[in-house]
Design brief:
Layout: H1 2-58
Amino acid sequence: MVLQNQKLVNETVAEMANSKSQAEQGLELATQAGQVIVEIQDGAKKVVEAVGRFATQVA
């Protein structure tokens, strides 16, 4: 009985460690995605500015 409980506890601890690792990976991916979104926004802003300058020059 005690050995079975110890085995279950060890398995639970291993699963919790695995879950923690996956959560950390998810956090890293979310951080990277946030950085990419900022880069996309900056690029889109530059495109809008360039189109605005072009439209002013053509007009």
